[in-house]
Write a structure and sequence with these properties.
This protein has 416 residues and is of the alpha+beta class. It has 9 helices and 22 strands. Strands 10, 13, 16, 17, 20, 21 and 22 form a 7-stranded mixed beta sheet that branches. It has a 6-stranded mixed beta sheet with strand order 5-6-7-3-8-9, sandwiched between helices.
Length: 416
């Protein structure tokens, strides 16, 4: 059986803008006067000799950094753009949801757009009429269905477009990140709808998203693109693992650059001097191995006497998802810290977070009536690496490996 989609040596080039500097214009003028051709800018290859096939019923995720060529590829699959070289063969009808408002005429009402899109897909008007109530109900736009789409918000437009694309009987559904515009409840409903199409209807689905965890959950195959080329094409766990590995270093560097923009609250009583991460051998590092014994040293300068200090330490992801917190609580409740420099040491045995890039947050509370005098996020960034487990396995499982033990027993209490 032939694949439902074939992409053969697909290349798409764009000519970059012609705006040049005064120096370039002068040099080009002298080149022409000397009988030489003016210097031209190179064409940009958004897609560079891309080849792959997709079987009917496959659910394929397409991932990569911004500008990798994902959306350009989908536009060629949906026949919205023409290639510079190569060809795309599609054996079936496509319902594309490429961008907000794509395929929706803003001058027409929501109801009229449903019939228009159905006609484009070659679906008889009688069939569209039968599905009309279902589409309107799913879109949650009953009150606005006879209002021109140009008066819709971007979220409302996405709801209408997704409802049309998933309700009409196209063979292939193409979705490019647009679900991120809708509200959380509608996003959840859309993913449930896609899973129904995948499991029960056997539709072919191509999904582009920066939500890699959703890609891993929905797709069995993932294509990773990089600078217009296919970097990897395989099962979702392995390919998404490569993507995470590519981005860990970038994320870490960006987090360090953006440190100055993080939340920071401090008073004159105490200053944070530095944080250092040590291996159990006492070596300073910002890379550790999963399950390693580690030490955090937090250096403070106390400017005024601090009564009953409580030190807090937390770990969060680079997008500020709080993962763990440790507080001294009663440990130093009877102490008063006089002015000077201090080091608070936190030992963490068998560091439990799975491979990835993380950051730290710290806080200090003092007084008989506890009040905060220092709080700061994104203070120190570090990376967890793994020499035994795949990066992709870690992310599929979450942030923490449970290390559980399993036991199976029959109902007659006889162990297996």
């Amino acid at each position: 059986m032939k694949p439902i989609i074939e992409v053969n040596h697909l290349t798409k080039e764009y000519q970059l803008g012609h705006i040049t500097s005064l120096k370039e214009n002068v040099l080009n003028t002298f080149r022409r006067l000397g009988g030489k051709p003016a210097q031209q800018r190179e064409n940009f290859k958004a897609l560079d000799d891309v080849n792959f096939t997709i079987k009917q019923g496959e659910v394929v995720g397409i991932i990569g950094h911004n500008g990798a060529g994902k959306s350009t590829l989908l536009k060629h699959l949906a026949n919205i753009s023409n290639p510079t070289k190569g060809e795309v063969i599609v054996r079936g009808t496509i319902a594309p949801l490429i961008e907000v408002g794509a395929g929706v005429n803003p001058e027409l009402t929501g109801r009229e757009n449903i019939f228009l899109n159905g006609a484009i897909l070659g679906i008889p008007k009688k069939v569209i009429q039968q599905k009309l109530d279902e589409i309107i109900e799913f879109s949650e736009l009953e009150q606005f269905i006879d209002t021109p789409v140009k008066r819709y918000s971007s979220g409302m437009t996405v709801k209408l477009g997704f409802s049309i694309a998933t309700s009409l009987d196209a063979d292939i559904l193409i979705i490019d990140e647009v679900l991120a515009v809708g509200d959380l409840a509608f996003q959840r409903k859309c993913f449930d709808k896609m899973e129904d199409m995948i499991i029960r209807q056997g539709k072919t689905v191509l999904l582009v998203s920066h939500n890699i965890r959703q890609i891993e959950r929905i797709c069995k195959r993932v294509i990773l693109m990089d600078h217009g080329k296919i970097f990897a094409d395989g099962n979702s766990a392995e390919t998404c693992g490569l993507y995470y590995a590519q981005n860990d270093e970038i994320i870490k560097k960006q987090s360090e650059i953006q440190h100055s923009n993080s939340r920071k609250e401090e008073k004159n009583e105490i200053e944070l001097l530095s944080i250092e991460l040590l291996t159990e051998n006492g070596d300073a590092t910002d890379y550790i191995t999963y399950n390693e014994n580690i030490i955090f040293n937090i250096h403070y300068k106390v400017n005024t006497p601090l009564e009953k200090p409580i030190f807090g330490f937390g770990i969060h992801t680079t997008d500020f998802l709080y993962l763990a917190t440790e507080i001294t609580d009663e440990q130093f409740k009877d102490q008063t810290l006089l002015p000077g420099e201090y080091t608070v040491t936190l030992n963490i045995p068998s560091f439990p977070l799975l491979p990835g890039v993380y950051s730290t947050r710290i806080g200090v509370d003092v007084g008989k009536v506890t009040h905060n005098i220092l709080y700061e996020e994104n203070v120190f960034n570090f990376q967890v690496k793994n020499t035994t487990n795949e990066r992709s396995l870690a992310l599929c499982e979450g942030f923490i490996y449970l290390k559980g033990s399993w036991h199976l027993q029959r109902s007659n209490n006889l162990s297996l």
